[in-house]
Amino acid sequence: MASANKQNTASTARRAKLEEARRRERARERRSRVITLTVGVLVVAGLVAGGGYLMNAADDQDKAEAAAKSSPVDGEKSWDDLTQNHVEKTVDYPMNPPVGGDHNPVWMNCDGDVYTAAIPKENAVHSLEHGAVWVTYTSKAAPADVKKFTERVSGTPYSLMSPVEDQAAPLMLSAWGKQLTVKSATDARVAQFFTKYVQGPQTPEPGAACTGGIDK
């Protein structure tokens, strides 16, 4: 019973941490929108006349983001009917990086974990099963993009990052059954992918742990 209570407490703490990270990101984006709109209103009509417009515009943007969250990410690839068997062998995945399928019984820690060396794909797939987003990159990725992704991942529960040198593009994002290639960490679709798929509706085991696995 004590063990079950401890697991429930840990799960509640993880959910709270995730919601807090999402709240902070929404707040940052909203502040940025208001500042940008304020400058525009000052130029066109002045601060007083533009106050109501600012709030309406911010609300419209919030609605647009909600709509984006319920829509596919432009350019993403999807796979259905992925197997979920636990195996203790190397798996030959049909996509690289893999986005699902049979996987190791132990997950990679994915509580904002950034790995600077390659990690076992079979363990990373288990992390995706728990609702993590996996950012991968090659040596051709720009250092500025790697740095920006490192900052995003390290501040986001249920995410992880690692190099995958043999993938088809320098920067890729994967979730269970979903994958997106981007040319830059500043691509607007990055935020949409994280918002939609970190513990998103595609997650086979929502709320499962992203700690207590392996970290190398």
Automatic annotation (TrEMBL):
Membrane-spanning segments: 34-55
Keywords: Membrane, Transmembrane, Transmembrane helix
Xref: InterPro entries: DUF3105
Region (Disordered): 1-30
Alphabetical list of Pfam families matching this protein: DUF3105
Bias kind Polar residues: ranges: 1-12
Listed Basic and acidic residues bias regions: 16-28
Name this polypeptide is given: DUF3105 domain-containing protein
Organism: Streptomyces castrisilvae
